[in-house]
Amino acid sequence: MLNAHYLKSLFEPASVAVIGASEEAHSVGRVIFGNLVDGGFRGGLHAVNPKHDTVFGRPCHRSVDEIGRRIDLAIIATPVRTLHALVEQCGRAGVRNAVIVTALDPADSALHARLLETARSGGVRLLGPGSLGLLRPADGLNAALTRIAVTSGELALVSQSGAMCSVVLDWAATHQIGFSSVISLSAAMDVDFGETLDYLVHDERTRYILLHVDRVRNARHFMSALRSAARIKPIILLKPGRHEHGHRATVGEVSLADTVFDAAMRRAGVVRVQNVAQLFFAARALASGFRPRVEQLAIVTNGGGPGAIAADRAGDLGAPLVELSGRTKEALAALRLGGAAAANPLDLGGDASPQRYRDALRALGEDPAIGNVLVILSPHALTDPVEIAQAIVEVSRELRLALCCCWMGGGQVAEGRALLEQAGIPVFHAPETAVELFHNVSKFYRHQALLLQTAGQSAPAGRSGGGARLLVEALLNQRRTVLSAMESKALLRSFGVPVTQTLVARDVTEALFVAEQVGFPVVMKVDSPDLTHKSEAGGVRLDLSATESVWSAYNDIVASVRLRHPEARIAGVSIEPYLERPHARELRLAVFRDPVFGPVISLGAGGAAAGHVGDRAHALPPLNGVLARDLIDAAQVAQLLDRCAGLPAVDRDALERVLLAVSDLACELPWVNELVIDPLIADEHGAIVADARVVIDHGLPAGSDRYAHMAIHPYPGHLVQDWKMSDGRSVRVRPVRPEDAGKVQAFFDRMSPETRYYRFMEAIEELPAGLIARFTQIDYDREMALIALTGTGDDEAMIGSARYTLAPDGESVEFALVVADDWQRFGLGRRLMGALIDCARSKGYRSIVGDVLGNNPKMLRLMHSLGFSVQPHPEENTLRRVAKPLHG
């Protein structure tokens, strides 16, 4: 249905009651009620306070029960001791939503639980506690604890921190920036990021969403909400805490936790910024259509110093400066730049004229390698900032370049800066800020491409992980946690990862026979569950080519390890073939469990060249080919994988296959706490694991979801089914993918007007692009859409769809079903609903519900036959509410 979001009454209330309204100086109730009066709130406004007869000349009620009409929103600004009774009172009075401004002690979990239970039993949705409140400027709604004037605009702000919310509002007011909504979540006892973002996606007044995130409690819900919303509207996120110390490993000066958070934001299609100014600059740039095509940047300046500052900042951010082609250098040399060379940054000289700027940009625009240009102007006696700004505006209309400007200075350049702003060209005071904008916005578009990637089980047939589960369960039954190299490789091999053969010798005599069996030359490594770094412990010997060397190596390994680590348990040595790979690059591929985001995959240099944690790239599983390649390219070691120093290029396809298999392992085995492959040998012939270590634990996540341990739900490939219909035709049913947008559009176009009306409950002639995106770019954790297909290849066509989305109560799902006109009456709808019900039941949902038009007898008969109850709709007499319990 194309109806309003169920939280509209919270964020766009028609009536508001302020509980604790007052005229007392410095009281919270005075500020909030005064803001609503002064803001000109156009709905019903009621004061509630048993201590007052009137507030600001308006009647004051003793309780919400006295108001005598339904209240959409109650703002509770009273002491902690009164909160439970007031929430209970709101439930009795039929109040739909409440914002608790009062802050609670975070340690008082009992009161939190009691408030939430009371609110749910009374049908009240809660925002807060400790919320700054709500603002909806276009409606005159300023129900917030702030004295900052907020104007209407297209940006929505959602913040966990009331203090940070005030900072952002103050900055925005200073720079004349308006908002569609301002929502302070604070403790997020009930309404959280997920539902808030879902509402803002539906909100026509919101084009861009700004998020301030303090902490992430539930990574799956957080990522699910972000990914669902970011597919529809740009999200720009600010999160502090980049420099955590003490309890986490660090990446240079930035914590590993922050590095993992960055990896999560890449997958969420979100651009993360570092300060409030960047938050708004990125929003403004996106609104103006500013779109850097690539990350590489060219800099044009009239002074060497500002150009160097910009180049330094680009280096800090890892944003490369583009290399000018020989042809471009020749064109620029013809501009007679004085003594300056045609380089990047390009110094046009202090006396640069508008024409010189114009000619330089045209020359850069002819270079296909150049997509982004930062134009810098610093005040000079021989330059005219206004004329140069006019030249930039004119030439920008004829070029394909993404232009950004920096007019340094104050009054001398103010008019020129204003001209650029009016033309929609981003312009800044400082070169560093401009470079940061390029970096942030280019990241946004790259992350958007990653967001559309759906990844699921990539292992070939016969390697689904079932055998691996048996291996892990056998070890857990023995209360084992650390796997030997041989066991770790067996686990990897079960997912199709190439590994070297490894056998274990328990004593020196056994080592001699094992070495002969493996074949010389061999590698010997200590077999100990207590040693992570075997080489540093003196426990590795390479290229052993004779029986005598095996004998001495065994004794030498045991003696060296006992000397350095006398407490370490030594089970023997592992023996494997020595790999003759003269062109090999040694890599380190690992999986570790982040306490918030679950499994994380890292890739970097391995062996003796293994560097700092900061040299590794990180990604959240599941991966597909595109995401695996992105991880490879993001690692610092990536440049060594290509042809270099006389070495042939590494077989990247083979490396990609290993990454995909390891991703499958991380998805299918929630018991894996740590996996380290070091070294992973990669060369022109492929990739093979030379050594590996796996640590498992018994801590399976609660719940029936097989992917509960992951922040991102994989594509549920296990739901793909092939059906034979009653008339003999074949149908394939599978979960929808983003690339199915064309099939959905064609399916809609073939629907009869009647079928469209029954599906959408209103007459619509076309399917909006945003709705197609919502139908195809789903999060498999929050919703499911099964589509029925017939035909193959280019002739494949969609003939039906059954989908559910999470209901407001979080315990049930709401469904929709539609079948193509020429496929009705063949049982397809019944089978689709049966498959959808099975999906919902497996997720543990309590019930499945839906709305059906009362004049749709075929659908009502189908629902009745499937065991749904059919009841009058509570709000619309033309509809029927159908429901089916999924358990019991």
Could you give the topology of this structure?
Elements: H1 8-11, E1 15-19, H2 28-38, E2 44-48, E3 54-55, E4 58-61, E5 73-76, H3 83-92, E6 97-100, H4 109-122, E7 125-127, E8 133-136, E9 141-144, E10 152-159, H5 162-174, E11 179-184, H6 193-202, E12 208-212, H7 219-230, E13 235-238, E14 250-251, E15 254-255, H8 256-268, E16 271-273, H9 276-287, E17 298-301, H10 304-317, H11 326-333, E18 346-347, H12 354-365, E19 372-377, H13 385-396, E20 402-407, H14 414-422, E21 427-428, H15 431-451, H16 466-477, H17 485-493, E22 503-505, H18 508-518, E23 522-527, E24 540-544, H19 547-564, E25 572-577, E26 585-594, E27 598-605, E28 617-619, H20 625-634, H21 652-668, E29 672-683, E30 686-689, E31 692-696, E32 721-724, E33 730-735, H22 741-750, H23 753-760, H24 769-776, E34 783-790, E35 797-806, E36 812-819, H25 828-842, E37 847-853, H26 857-865, E38 869-872, E39 879-885
Parallel strand pairs: 1-2, 1-5, 2-4, 5-6, 6-7, 10-11, 10-12, 12-13, 13-16, 17-18, 17-19, 19-20, 20-21, 36-37
Antiparallel strand pairs: 3-4, 8-9, 8-11, 14-15, 22-25, 23-24, 23-25, 26-27, 26-29, 27-28, 29-30, 29-31, 32-33, 33-34, 34-35, 35-36, 37-39, 38-39
Shape field: globular
**What's the architecture of the domain at 717-885, going by CATH?**
3-Layer(aba) Sandwich
Number of strands: 39
Low-confidence stretches: 245-253, 459-463
Q: What is the SS-derived class?
A: alpha/beta
Question: Looking at this structure, what is the CATH superfamily of the domain at 717-885?
Answer: Gcn5-related N-acetyltransferase (GNAT)
Mean of residue pLDDT?
89
* CATH domain class name of the domain at 717-885: Alpha Beta
Q: Could you give the distance between the termini?
A: 29 Å
Helix fraction, binned, reads 25-40%
Number of helices: 26
Radius of gyration equals 32 Å
Strand order of the largest sheet: 32-33-34-35-36-37-39-38
Q: Which percent band covers the strand fraction?
A: 15-25%
Main beta-sheet annotation: 8 strands, mixed
CATH fold description of the domain at 717-885: Aminopeptidase
